Amino acid sequence: MNMSDPIADMLTRIRNANIAKHDTVDVPASKMKIAIAGILQDEGYIKSYDLVDNGAFKDIHITMKYGKDKNDKIITGIKRISKPGLRIYAGKDNLPNVLGGLGVAILSTDQGVITDRQARKLKVGGEVLAYVW
C-alpha cells in the first residue's frame, strides 16, 4: 500500500501504543523517522529505539516510556503539524512554543531534524513537523 504521509503514520502508531499502554511499537524505518525517534529519546518521551532488519526492509523498534505505573503517561499528546497537502514553515523569528516551553516542536531544517530550542540557538527556521507534549 502506498502511504501518503509516513510521518503521520509513525506519530499515530506511537500515540495508539501510548493510549493502549503497550511496551513497544514497530514503525517502518526511514532517515526522517529515525531522526524523529532520536529526538523523542533525547527529550525523554520514549525509553529507546532500535533498528531491526526484517530482510527486505527495516523497522524502528520503539520502547515506550511510562511513569511509576502505566497510567502515568510521559507523552500526553503528539500532533502532526505540517502535512503533504499543507506544509507549515516557521522562520527563525517566529518558531513555535509548545505549551509555553513544556512541550517540544520538531522541525526539519537545513541543519537536520531538530527541536525548536535547538533551532533558536542555531537561529534557523524550517518546516514544523510535529508537536509533542
Average pLDDT figure: 93
Q: Shape from CA axes?
A: globular
Strand content: 25-35%
What gap, in angstroms, lies between the N and C termini? 31 Å
Specify the biggest β-sheet: 5 strands, antiparallel
Specify the helix fraction band. 10-25%
Derived from helix and strand composition plus strand pairing, the structural class reads: alpha+beta
Say how many strands there are.
Answer: 8
H/I helix tally: 3
Low-confidence stretches: none
Rg is 15 Å
What does this structure look like?
This protein has 133 residues and is α+β, with helices and mostly antiparallel strands. It contains 3 helices and 8 strands. The strands form 2 sheets. Strands 4, 5, 6, 7 and 8 form a 5-stranded antiparallel sheet that branches. It has a 3-stranded antiparallel sheet with strand order 1-3-2, covered by helices on one side. The longest helix is centred in the first third of the chain and has 14 residues. The model has no long low-confidence stretch (mean pLDDT 93).
